[in-house]
């Protein structure tokens, strides 16, 4: 049974971390909630620091937990295919999860995925905020309900608003968390450039769907909206 409170990740984030690599190294020691106890390792985001699109999923799965990389299991393979079909440039993607440790239940020797609770989402959110501050994406893609809860709040319904471009960070649950971003190594901050967010289903939902072809087409259609938004967005200055 999950603990109902957790200290949260904030105190594990080095305030002077300037790069994603520094954040990733610090996240390896995070004890912000109890999920670190049973998981193999922290699975932090991956992708180029100058990536223009950030895709946020739920949490690492069994294979991701073993490899220490996000989206390397079956859902990740499907996502890569959908990204290609949507004509999103894979070199422009940064992939991460709302919760950075694998939550599971042991059944015999099998580790069965368990959806993170709100307490885990809240505890892990500071890592997402820190990633966003360094990445300053041009388009944000939220994959599934857990990521939507982490970024947009518990009342957001992916089923109702999927595929719709929303203003970011205005549509965030706490927009102030995402509004100011560092601009130099001296601690200077500025307003984050306005951008867009789009929610869609998690690729694992396609794998579970009765009609997988239809679910896959829906995912590609949503990602195509993101690809077009990216094409219409001016590349930010470095
Ligand atoms: S799930 Fe997030 S908050 Fe919890 S221990 Fe892992 S990195 Fe820290």
Annotation keywords:
238 residues, alpha/beta, two-stranded antiparallel sheet, 9 helices, binds iron/sulfur cluster
Helix content: 25-40%
Mean pLDDT: 93
Our measurement of the CA-to-CA distance between the termini, rounded to an integer number of angstroms, reads 46 Å
Order of helices and strands: HEEHHEEEHEHHEHEEEHH
Shape: globular
Unreliable segments of 5+ consecutive residues: none
Classify the beta-strand content into a percent band.
15-25%
In short:
By secondary structure, the protein is α/β, with parallel strands linked by helices.
If you had to describe this structure to a student in words, what would you say it looks like?
The chain is an alpha/beta fold and 238 residues long. 37% of the residues lie in helices and 17% in strands. The protein has 9 helices and 10 strands. It has helices at residues 20-27, 62-67, 74-85, 118-135, 145-152, 158-161, 176-179, 203-208, 212-232, and strands spanning 46-47, 53-57, 93-97, 104-107, 110-113, 139-143, 166-168, 180-182, 189-191, 195-200. Iron/sulfur cluster binds next to helix 4.
Topology, element by element:
Blueprint (H helix, E strand, L loop, with lengths): L19 H8 L18 E2 L5 E5 L4 H6 L6 H12 L7 E5 L6 E4 L2 E4 L4 H18 L3 E5 L1 H8 L5 H4 L4 E3 L7 H4 E3 L6 E3 L3 E6 L2 H6 L3 H21 L6
Parallel strand pairs: 2-3, 2-6, 6-10
Antiparallel strand pairs: 1-3, 4-5, 7-10, 8-9
Bound molecules: iron/sulfur cluster.
Iron/sulfur cluster (SF4) binds next to helix 4.
